[in-house]
Amino acid sequence: MRVTHLSLTDFRNYAQVEVAFTPGPNLIVGRNGQGKTNLVEALGFLSTLSSHRVSNTAAMIRAGQDAGIIRAKLEYNGRDILTEVQINRSGQNRAQVNRSVIKTRELTRYFSSVLFAPEDLALVRGDPSGRRRFLDQLLVLRSPRLTGVLADYDRVLRQRNTLLKSARASGLRTTQLGTLEIWDDRLVSLGSEIIDERSELVRLLGEPLGTAYQAVAGENHGPALVPLLSITGADSEDEAAGEVTPPPSSGTGPDGSIGTNTAGTTADAFRTALAGLRRKEIDRGMTLVGPHRDDVIFMLNALPAKGYASHGESWSFALALKLASAELLRRDSATGDPVLILDDVFAELDLSRRRRLAAAVTGFEQVLITAAVLEDVPEELTAHTIHIHAGAVVDG
């Protein structure tokens, strides 16, 4: 898969811009603040429906405008596809594929990309919510149908929390108990699927993560991913995430199922956890167990990377995690490699790591790279260079 053309209208600092891309490496060069990251942010949004820089999509619309448009021509398996999303300041966003209207969430079916940026250091050092979001975005790229499962789980979670708050205010009545049990069933059904899918993804990432880390760092520090699951009694929201050791019962079995202290399925463990927390949930007016309270611990040298890893090790881990994600997608996909996007990465690396990273990414069908200084990027990645100045392509 590759992007052949990107068109932006009223997106960030671009009133209008047209950019052509080629197979292999594409280098986007410009001083800070000129708009190079805005180009790859737009492509990342087409792939994941989120920005790696902001949580509010309205921030991506050019000042003074009501909407911004991202339009990209894609090519894979001999097919040309035109994808488009209109980001509205108010109201729902709108999407099209080949000029036909689709549900916005269906865009992820058509474009697969993996983006690494300096902000991804927060995957290692930040809150559990960022790691959950990383896993869920990768799940959707591998299996787009999970978009609906995740959305349904969030809806059920909100409804259940509303009922728990009502019960806290008025005392749990018989009718509310029956309704709560209905929401419990839906929460367990959807949540167990998410837990199992995440756990299998964590297992699959293990081998390519080790390979990618050694390729980037030049050393083997034993990178590993360990699930921290609320259904086994661990709660990332109540503890210092990444600085705790998972309980002995957590983790995945050889078939990808969740290991727990009680025999049975993930759903059984989920139901048991809900029953044990019933009174506490009512007292607090919120759901205290489920995939929305899980985490994954990043390990280096048998220690949690958060709190123990150096800046360079944390940077290498985050970059290796994204390279491992891209490798996993290329193995699974019938549409070819994902587009690999490296936003302002090379400035943070020494010369040897730059060379190793260049060697690690040159095998991908298409790589998009941004840099403020041309000389920061190894020469083998500069064959097609696009220069950006003040929201315009000045050559390339």
UniProtKB/TrEMBL annotation:
Signal peptide segment: none
Comp. bias regions, Low complexity: 250-260
Keywords carried by this UniProt record: ATP-binding, Cytoplasm, DNA damage, DNA repair, DNA replication, DNA-binding, Nucleotide-binding, SOS response
Single Gene Ontology BP annotation: SOS response
Residues reported in the UniProt entry to bind ATP: G30, R31, N32, G33, Q34, G35, K36, T37
Chain segments carrying region Disordered: 236-264
PROSITE patterns xrefs: RECF_1 (PS00617), RECF_2 (PS00618)
GO cellular component, one term: cytoplasm
SUPFAM superfamilies xref list: P-loop containing nucleoside triphosphate hydrolases
Entry keyword annotation includes Cytoplasm: yes
Molecular function as annotated in GO: ATP binding; single-stranded DNA binding
Recorded superkingdom: Bacteria
Record-annotated RecF/RecN/SMC N-terminal domain positions: 3-371
InterPro entries named among the record's database cross-references: DNA-binding_RecF (IPR001238), DNA-binding_RecF_CS (IPR018078), P-loop_NTPase (IPR027417), RecF/RecN/SMC_N (IPR003395), RecF_2 (IPR042174)
Family matches, as HAMAP family: RecF
Family as reported in the entry's similarity comment: Belongs to the RecF family.
Function: The RecF protein is involved in DNA metabolism; it is required for DNA replication and normal SOS inducibility. RecF binds preferentially to single-stranded, linear DNA. It also seems to bind ATP.
Name listed for the protein in its UniProt record: DNA replication and repair protein RecF
Organism: Cryobacterium shii
Gene: recF
